[in-house]
Amino acid sequence: RSAMAGVVGQDEFGDFLRERLAGEGVDVSRLRQTKEGKTGLVFISLTGTGERSFAHYRTRAAEFLFSDEDVDLELLARARAVHCGTNSLLYPEAQRAMVRMFRAARDAGKIACCDPNLRLEVWKETAELRRTLDQLFPCCAVVKLAGDEIEFATGERDPSAALRALERMGVPLPVVTLGAAGARLLFGGRLIDVPAPPCRVVDTTGAGDGFVAALLYGLTRRCSGRAELERLPASEVLELAGFACHVASRVCEHLGAVAGLPRAAGLGDVWPASLR
């Protein structure tokens, strides 16, 4: 089961997002709608190889208005995992609220996960984003970075060095996704490479989201919290990461970030043995 906390506009796009999420079984009781801002829009253009570029239309967008009133500690107490990105955190109040939630998650032993999904072009001051990451990452059990994000997020250009930097921040399971090359992760002091299955790439939008969704799905079924995650056998972590790569590859075979997300029933023998 999943829930979403955040802010959308009291408009047609906000209604659409709320209804679509609820239709998928997501608890949207903490998805706030406001008249103070409009639901933001992002248009995605593709190259011939499925790579993306983004055009943002989010002037005073509702999503930027995330604040302390959206941090529900009772909801958090019932969760095994909490996950966030950073693209809604342009305002200091939103940054403080997200850091507060993640510190509460860490203190409660939850599996806190951050995929920054960096869009540096939308930040007037990228130093604010870096300070926010420096506060979020030490709260996390899992951090997922794309290969082109590691230098900004960690100061390192090499994926292995970036993983070591995240480990020093206290992250027990840092991951760098590397597109067609799969993923590299660090767990229990050991660097592990996970291959990606071959696929026909149509659109890479949402592949990282699919990877994180599958990884968290597996982790929350194997672990009740961060302490159990840290005790998992490395072989199981490798198996779950391989599952995540398979799900990410499925996403790439369809247009859009949502259409390619596979249903559980359609994954067949891709399921890890530990989740069957």
Write a structural description:
The longest helix is centred in the last third of the chain and has 19 residues, at 234-252. α7 runs antiparallel to α9 (234-252). This protein starts with 5 loop residues before the first strand and ends in a 24-residue tail after the last helix. The protein has helices at 12-23, 73-77, 92-107, 126-136, 150-154, 159-168, 207-222, 226-231, 234-252, and strands at residues 6-9, 31-34, 41-46, 52-57, 81-84, 111-114, 142-146, 173-177, 183-187, 190-194. α3 (92-107) links the parallel β5 (81-84) and β6 (111-114). A 6-stranded mixed β-sheet has the order 5-6-7-8-9-10, with helices on both faces. Strands 1-2 form a two-stranded parallel sheet. The mean pLDDT is 94. The chain has 276 residues and is α/β, with parallel strands linked by helices. The chain is globular and about 50 Å long. It is 36% helix and 17% strand.
Short description, anyone?
By secondary structure, this protein is of the alpha/beta class. The protein has 9 helices and 10 strands.
Identify the notable features of this structure and list them briefly.
276 residues; two-stranded parallel ribbon; 9 helices; alpha/beta
How would the blueprint of this fold be written?
Layout: E1 6-9, H1 12-23, E2 31-34, E3 41-46, E4 52-57, H2 73-77, E5 81-84, H3 92-107, E6 111-114, H4 126-136, E7 142-146, H5 150-154, H6 159-168, E8 173-177, E9 183-187, E10 190-194, H7 207-222, H8 226-231, H9 234-252
Parallel strand pairs: 1-2, 5-6, 6-7, 7-8
Antiparallel strand pairs: 3-4, 8-9, 9-10
Helix pairs in contact: 3-4, 7-9
